[in-house]
Amino acid sequence: MTAQQTDPTKSETAFAATDVLADDFDGPDTVERAEKSPDDLQPYSDLGLKDDEYAKIREILGRRPTASELAMYSIMWSEHCSYKSSKVHLKQFSEKAPKNTRMLAGIGENAGVVQISEKIAVTFKVESHNHPSYVEPYQGAATGVGGIVRDILAMGARPIAVMDPLRFGAHDHPDTARVLPGVVAGIGGYGNCLGLPNIGGEIVFDPCYQGNPLVNALSIGVLPVERLQKKEATGTGNIVVLLGARTGRDGIGGVSVLASATFDEEAEQRRPSVQVGDPFMEKLLIESCLELYDAGLVSGIQDLGGAGLTCALTETAAAAGTGMRVWLERVPLREASMSPTEILASESQERMLLIVTPENLDAVLKVAEKWGVWATAIGEVTAASADGTPGRLLITWNDHVVVDVPPGSLADDGPVYNRPFREPNDVILLQADRAETLPRPSTGDELRETVLRMAASPNLCDKSWVTEQYDRYVLGNTVLAQPEDSGVLRIDEETGLGVALSVDGNGRFARLDPFEGARLALAESYRNVAVTGAEPVAVTDCLNFGSPEDPSVMWQFAEATRGLADGCLELGIPVTGGNVSFYNQTGAAAIHPTPVVGVLGVFDDVARRIPMGFPQPAKAGGDLLFLLGETRVELSGSEWAWVTHNHLGGRPPKADLAAEQALGRVMARASRSGLVSAAHDLSDGGLAQVLVESTLRYGVGAKVTLPDDGNSPFVHLFSESAARALVAVPRGHDKAFVALAAEHGVPITPLGVTSEEESLQVEGQFTIPLDELREAWTATLRNLFGGAAELVNRHGSEEEPAPVETGEVRSVTLELSPQAPGGPIDPAANA
Amino acid sequence: MRIGVVTFPGSLDDGDAARAARIAGAEAVRLWHGDPDLQGVDAVVLPGGFSYGDYLRCGAIARFAPVMESIIDAARGGLPVLGICNGFQVLCEAHLLPGALTRNQHLHFRNRDQWLKVEATNTAWTNRFTAGQEILIPVKNGEGCFVADARTLDQLEAEGRVVARYIRGNPNGSQRDIAGITNEAGNVVGIMPHPEHAVEALTGPSLDGLGFFTSVLRNLAADGQLAGGQK
After folding, report:
1. Residue B75 placed within a domain
2. Is A807 exposed, middle or buried (0-12, 13-18, 19+ CB in 10 A)?
């Protein structure tokens, strides 16, 4: 364990203490004071800065930094903001990016923007909010949604959906019972109140995430191409406006103290570093920003998320090469006693920074007033130097100069580490321990029992206990949502233009082989989009890893990024943006490397989407079932090996991206020609799981005959070979579909028929009535986390239902915002 | 026919209600919470969402919005008003409908496709249905548990003012499985599930929700003869 441990109690106070001490004397630490007292000891290591990093700051400034400056550098140079450990690897995504004419904005922007028609673009990104969600599950997860939505908003888009890939510790661990319900309620509480449908995601349990749950959040938005916004603070004399919520003491040090260090037993004390969300304010913020965009009132915009005002001020100025003059006392505060350092470091949610021309200021304030959000002019853009060098960021607080820095030094010139990486010694041993040699079920009865056991296992079971807590209908454009392979949204009601989105990862595969694991995540996400009939066009990624200071973790990261970059090049779809989350480890125990990959697909007409459930057969004898792709004996890292043998070893399945592309082409053509009635991607749990899900979706049975091709029935049912899908083809279309598969060189195997009998029959092996299958599949999460949730179904029809005795009761302090509609905006706005 | 759809700060399904009105054949008119002018609309929908963040109590603040003063007056005069989800909560807070919507018994937000049985078909918003008709409509709420005192419940049932009940499972613990109710005149209806999300085959579980919107058009065409009296 090489990560530098910081003392959380110390670092909590470090942000405030330096100022407060100074306050006791005669005001805050200023530039003047810094010049006079060059040798004052500063708590840089408590803020997460290394010796050489501190030395570099002194070199840049030619003096010691003020307390505020020190906090700003510690934040901007943190792993979370600066990508200092990952940068050298991430550049592959640009270097190896396939040629692409759709991308309007890419890596480095708040989110990638992809053009999907002449007039319309979409923007999407996935981000992590892992550490906060462990410390305070509800608020951590809620503000994760809020943060990614503001990224989307900052690009000029209306956010239209969210997705949440979630990973928790063991399903039966007591702490999972704390974390999961809170995370789910937080995502629902925020996303539902924002009015964004939640259209998909993942819920995975694995002991490796105990103490380090992964709460990733993806959002997608849509914009007219010409509404694309920039973050550059251009135009000398333009006004810097802070829009949205007032600034409070929540989330101070979130990115540096919380996100950029490993956990220890004192993690709970970091709760004040978690932000607190107000989705109602964010909804108003969204509507005001969109109205401002449409009225052409915004010259530049940046969301305030991690690193708060510090990040927004420095990035907007650095991007333009301009300087900025900010009067910090104008920032509307929740607590008047906040020090300038705290104001700069606060990660209070629901805020945006706007750059507007002076003549537009009144109009901007008017829009803000209409929606009842605070809008305050806090500064102005200043010129670059006459010699062309970028301007400076000058921040005063009640006439004290507390910050005077070159903004680029914070935003762009952070440290870059080429960290050592080394293949861990255990990988060879791990790969030699193959699951293919484990004892397997062989008789029909054993297979039947295995199918039921797998269907009920925590990772494969029905997730509706979770997904029912999310609104999937709002906005009225959700065509497909979980449990479908992809979320599918209608974008244009006139033309039917639409998108498909999937987000996938498999930490076990990546643990066995991070290069192949990343490619498999990409392949699965690509396939999930392709089987709906959409054309995959772009990628976003959230790279969740342990500490980069551990050479073994760094090796996993290097391998995974190489795998993902190579894979995207091979598939011809670029990475448009994403996020790295390091330090997902407690002590020496890192999580499985978990690259989570989101793929965006496009439909010219979303009416031709292919759902995953077998439909009620239109003709007697049912639809014909076909398996696309090749089944190999690939059981290592599989859900079967994990559930039945608690085994993780061997090499993961082979990712054949050319085969994925061919499969995608077949599905796109089949969708256009209306040849198939249902299709479901094969991944975790193999064919058996797909049969479970596709039959139970609409309660339509199936009669399956497994091919006699040398593979055992067990391998056919539970292998996790990639590049496969199960397809239902209405009678009469089968010849055309078989010919289509052959034309694209995709192996196709007849598997049987859908059936009016409500059972899953595997010829010569077993029959399971759908009711029995459904009970096994749906009971698991309900029993684990349901608690009070089921009382209603049992007692709902009674006259006066018994009061609920158990269940999570969350105390929420509700406070009517004083800036409720019609209320005054901050008078300082007119200063 | 012009159906007004109110937008409060925090309204979320307002666009969907407007779309449903259009699909049913009406002109959708957007009404703003801060403007008491109803623009001469023939009916009003109070949409779902979290008006004013649901702070204080669901619907409690929205009830005092300037537009609501006009709506309350007009509703008493016979204007057809449909409150969906948060809109239902607003109607209860405004005392246009009895009872209250409280936290779901299981304490979770729940979104599922819900079967309902329509009972009262003599209202402005349900005359296109047949009594006892079973319909499938999405439900999605955190505070949809309908409660009232026993006398009120008895009265609602005796007067045939239960518009719909949950069947095949009660999603929130509502008393007597009540999903929607109407006022005495039948022009004001509150319903917890979302008919506006069941109006298109592409995006909804059924087209059953359309009946609410076509009902009000029929009611207006009959000049309010079917329910309540037009003012």
Report:
1. yes
2. middle
Catalytic residue among B33, B58, B85, B93: B85
Please state the separation of Cα A773 from the chain's center in Å.
32
B228 in any annotated domain: no
Range of the domain at B188: 2-221
Domain count, chain B: 1
Residues of chain B contacting residue A490, judged by C-beta atoms under 8 Å apart:
202-203
From first to last of its 231 residues, chain B has per-residue pLDDT tens of: 999 999 999 999 999 999 999 999 999 999 999 999 999 999 999 999 999 999 999 999 999 999 999 999 999 999 999 999 999 999 999 999 999 999 999 999 999 999 999 999 999 999 999 999 999 999 999 999 999 999 999 999 999 999 999 999 999 999 999 999 999 999 999 999 999 999 999 999 999 999 999 999 999 998 766 654 443
Instruction: Give B178 to chain A, closest Cα distance, Å.
Output: 10
**Complex prediction ipTM:** 0.96
- A793 and B56 within 8 Å at the Cβ level: the answer is no
Least confident of A196-200, A269-273, A295-299, A686-690: A269-273
Domains and CATH numbers, chain A: 1-95+230-414+796-831 (3.90.650.10), 99-228+462-607 (3.30.1330.10), 610-787 (3.90.650.10)
Q: How far apart are CA B20 and CA B209, in angstroms?
A: 8
Would the CB atoms of A279 and B50 count as touching at under 8 Å? yes
- The CATH number of the domain where B114 resides is what? 3.40.50.880
Residue A81 has pLDDT above 60, yes or no: yes
Which residue does chain B place closest to A372, by CA atoms? B9
β-strand A766-769 against A725-729: which pairing, if any?
Answer: unpaired
Residue B9 C-alpha, separation from nearest chain A C-alpha, in angstroms: 7
Query: Which of B33, B145, B196, B197 does the annotation list as catalytic?
Result: B196
Whether A409 contacts A729, CB under 8 Å: no
A193–B16: do the CB atoms touch at under 8 Å? Answer: no
Q: Do A479 and B112 touch (CB under 8 A)?
A: no
Q: Do B104 and A809 touch (CB under 8 A)?
A: no
Evaluate whether residue B193 is within a structural domain: yes
| Residue where the block lists tokens 């959380």 | A8
pLDDT tens digits, A524-546: 999 999 999 999 999 999 999 99
Comparing alpha-carbon positions, the chain A residue that sits nearest to B52 is: A280
Query: Which chain A residue shows the shortest CA-CA distance from B65?
Result: A821
The pLDDT tens digits for B134-169 are 999 999 999 999 999 999 999 999 999 999 999 999
Which residues in chain A are contacts of B50 at CB distance < 8 A? 192-193, 279-280, 283
Nearest-Cα distance to chain A for B222, in Å, is 30
CB-based contact A348:A416 (threshold 8 Å): no
Q: Which of A192, A193, A792 has its CB closest to that of B173?
A: A792
Distances (CA, A) of A462 to A169, A656, A744, A771: 18, 29, 34, 14
Give me the pLDDT at residue A620, please. Answer: 80
Which helix (H) or strand (E) covers residue A79, if one does?
helix A79-82
Decide the pairing of beta strands B2-7 and B43-46.
parallel
Token pair of B141 as six digits: 């709420």
